[in-house]
Amino acid sequence: MKLLRVGAAILNQTPLAWDSNENHIAKALTEANAQNVSILCLPELCITGYGCEDAFHSTGTHEMAWKTLKRLLPQTKGMIVSFGLPIMYQNSLFNCAALAVDGELAGLVAKQHLAGDGIHYEPRWFKSWPSGVRKLFEKDGNEYPIGDLFFECGGIRIGFEICEDAWVAARPGAALAQQGVDVIMNPSASHFAFDKIRTRER
Fold this sequence. Notes:
The protein is of the alpha/beta class. It has helices at residues 18-34, 59-72, 122-125, 172-178, 196-201; strands at residues 6-8, 39-41, 80-89, 92-101, 104-110, 134-139, 142-147, 151-153, 156-160, 183-185.
């Protein structure tokens, strides 16, 4: 049996605060590496900050998020790390988890179920990714798998449910479990709410 140390980082990210957000992520990577973490889950949309509102529609936001991701990739050497960022694909914007493996981008998982209740307004900015669909995302002369997918890393299968994906009846985790996925990560940016534990129990 292979022993893995899985970590989850809680970051104090601010929408569009590029330098401080990147610094918080870099510090989390350094700390995880020092603690011999094999797999690190960073929060949903951690690169941009969750609440960018209509700034999510800006091309500059997408491009800056991508450049930040590329700068952080070398710091994932020896680890598997998920980053959250918006990705523009075929003229639609998706809330994605990017998986880095040993310094390289392995692919992008797109959120399938968007939060549209309470303070959440995700359907205004993002599109839902259809279940079971996998495509190729071209950027900077490279192609990366994108969509509803999982990754095989050294004999370990890793999949994702991004926040709201885990709160619906037909959650992606059920399909991932049927495909023998070993680790399901859930990067979330849920706000604090009283009595949330009762909702979780249901």
